[in-house]
Specification:
Length: 339
């Protein structure tokens, strides 16, 4: 037994000395000390020795194991120093892999364009709350409680709120809010999200963007309104666009005017986005109602004004050639990566 142990140790030491890489060393270790290695197999046979020989053989076996472990450890340090592959050379001047980059949502990109155009026309850019008091969303805009006009805006009411809160149905409440801190002349726009409890289709979403506009000064007329919007549309689309002006009722303006744009998606022939009419309703607008001017603290005898609410999503659709407004909010990367 002791002879056999000596043989194993000699053979193992020779093999350890020949191992030139850590991988080879691991193989040698497995061969001699692994679960089915030569040394454990021999140790297994200890129990078959006569009892008086066992303690010495056991001690020798233990020593043999320690000797081999030490030899492996020493060789490990040696091959580690000599034969480990040198670290790969790095050329720091080599251009790296391009990382996937995010970008702004098409609505955000388009909104920035809109803001830039109005800014260059001398408009101040304001913000307002998305959760709004009914007072601003309706009452001060000449839409009293129980007035049938309230039904036009399918409203999300905030349940349990003491103060009659709603998700604003349009950006118009900011007209009055803005005038609480300003005196005419004013020229403001208010881009922002609005919410309506309505069925969706290619040109209707339940959550969308509007951009409110308000101009109050002496001698403001309907022609100023139409001229401003025409100029804005021309600047936005960088070409003459065909518009159609229709009378429309909004309680906070008199007269009220809707502006449609010739559908650029189908060239006016008719498609699902324009409901086959060749026209898309883009802007609700009008001359600020004298009652609303009074609510703003402005004397309607001295001042007049116009206001408008642009449908940002629909303008964006025509600008980029998107044929369904719902794509914007789908979160679908196949859509978003095109911008
Ligand atoms: C209004 O919301 C009025 N506050 C606009 C206004 C402002 C009138 C100031 C007079 C003075 P209307 O509900 O029509 O109006 O909406 C205005 C624009 O928002 C529409 O012309 C349309 O372009 C867009 N819009 C309306 N509903 C949706 C919808 N569900 N999805 C996407 N865009 C919409």
């Amino acid at each position: 037994m002791i002879e056999k142990l000596k043989n194993i140790v000699d053979k193992a030491k020779a093999d350890i000395g020949k191992a030139h890489t850590r991988e080879e060393l691991l193989q040698v270790q497995q061969r001699y000390l692994g679960r089915k290695g030569e040394l454990p197999i021999l140790l297994h046979k200890l129990s078959s020795l006569p009892e008086r020989e066992r303690p010495e053989a056991g001690q020798k076996a233990n020593e043999a194991k320690q000797t081999l472990l030490r030899a492996i450890e020493e060789q490990h340090a040696l091959v580690g120093e000599k034969n480990e592959k040198p670290a790969e050379e790095i050329d720091v001047t080599w251009p790296g892999d391009e990382m996937p980059r995010g970008h702004l949502h098409p609505i955000t990109q388009f909104l920035r364009r809109v803001k830039g155009i109005f800014y260059s026309m001398g408009f101040e850019i304001l913000d307002g709350p998305e959760v709004e008091l009914q007072k601003y969303n309706f009452d001060l805009l000449n839409i009293p409680k129980d007035h049938p006009a309230r039904d036009v805006w399918d409203t999300f009411f905030v349940r349990g709120s003491k103060e009659d809160l709603v998700l604003r149905t349009h950006t118009s409440p900011v007209q009055v809010r803005a005038m609480e801190k300003r005196k005419p002349p004013v020229r403001i726009i208010v881009p922002g999200r609005v919410f309506r409890h309505e069925a969706t289709d290619a040109s209707h979403e339940a959550e969308f963007y509007q951009c409110e506009g308000l101009v109050v000064d002496k001698g403001i007329r309907v022609t100023d309104l139409i001229g401003t919007l025409k100029m804005f549309l021309q600047e936005t689309f960088e070409k003459k666009v065909r518009i159609r002006v229709r009378p429309e009722f909004y309680p906070f303006v008199e007269p009220g005017i809707d502006i449609d744009m010739s559908c650029l998606l189908c060239g006016g022939k008719g498609c699902p986005a324009c409901k086959q009419s060749g026209w898309m309703e883009m802007v609700g607008s009008g001359m600020v109602h004298p009652k609303v001017l009074k609510n703003m603290g402005v004397d309607p005898q001295v001042y007049s004004g116009f206001a408008f609410g642009l449908g940002i999503d629909r303008l964006m659709m025509l600008y980029y050639g998107v044929d369904d407004v719902r794509l914007s909010y789908s979160g679908d990367l196949r859509f978003l990566e095109q911008f």
